[in-house]
Amino acid sequence: MFGFLKKFIPKRFRKSHVTVPVVVLQGVITPESSRFQSSLNLAGVAEQLEDAFSMKEAPAVALVINSPGGSPVQSRLIFQRIRSLAEEHKKSVLVFVEDVAASGGYMIALAGDEIIVDPTSVVGSIGVVSSGFGFTELIGKIGVERRIYTSGENKVILDPFRPERQEDVEFVLDLQRDVHEVFIAMVKERRAGKLADHPDLFSGLFWTGRRGVELGLVDRMGSLREVLRERYGEKTELEMVEERRSFFGRRLPAILARPPRAEAIAGAAAHGLAGAVEERSLWARYGL
After folding, report:
1. Which residues have CB under 8 Å from 46's CB, separation 6+?
2. Angle at 109 between CA 104 and CA 113, to 5 degrees
3. Among residues 74, 86, 103, which one has the least CA distance to residue 23?
4. Are 283 and 40 in contact (CB under 8 A)?
5. Predicted local confidence at residue 168, as pLDDT
6. Whole-prediction pTM value?
7. Which residues fall within 8 angstroms of residue 5, CB to CB, at 6 or more apart?
């Protein structure tokens, strides 16, 4: 509470302990937040990261990651913000993986100068995936006629209400290859000199934390408190950096400022249910 007064106190009277800020990055990585699922994106964590790196006397910032992945764009944006702040404030970044840091979660973990895992953590999954549904038979059975009008022959590629076209699939696979190449380049740059020569390293497979150490995907095994006290002394204190709140608590989204219409509630519920199912499938892929 009185941290801002510390600079006015002579050093000989200040506490001798070291304080390390801790930011928790947890959830499926999505472009927007949802009330129905735990989501992670740059907009949601930017202020926490700013606050953590702004702690002048802290020698490092600890990031606790628990994410099965999601949006590659948001993953890379968070990675870039962490590296930018680390360079600006001249601080080390220590990443601690809990249950999983896979796919986009691992991309964010690459922002760490050191990645520490539990032996049973799940890491890796360096690949790109897209998914969807096809309703070509269902739409006919329920008596619905599909009507769509476009200007541009490729405006409706991968339309779930039309039969899948091979040229559409090839187009998406090309996009995935581009993103995959960016991901691989990030891994090779951030883990230079540490990676094992393994044929499946960039295949999308994932491994336990212990195996991740052997493959060079992560640096060591350990726990947050154990590692920080080992490095900065037994008196090291951890300070959790949480989302900023107003005097009256967290500000509600603008959409909630007025009573939503019934159809809006139904639409949000349906969208939320689909999102929750997708989120559950992402976690389940890693046995969680």
Report:
1. 81
2. 155
3. 86
4. no
5. 73
6. 0.78
7. none
Answer yes or no: is pLDDT of 21 > 70: yes
CATH for 16-125+191-284 is 3.90.226.10
**Environment class of residue 126 by beta-carbon count within 10 Å: exposed (0-12), middle (13-18) or buried (19+)?**
buried
pLDDT (0 to 100) of residue 17: 82
What residue ranges do the domains of the chain occupy? 16-125+191-284
Inter-residue contact 114 to 135 (CB < 8 Å): no
Top pLDDT among 256 and 80 is at 80
Q: Is 142 helix (H, G, I), strand (E, B) or coil?
A: coil
Sort 78 into a burial class: Cβ within 10 Å, 0-12 / 13-18 / 19+: buried
The pLDDT value given to residue 259: 42
CA distance 46 to 43: 6
Average pLDDT of the residues in 114-121: 98
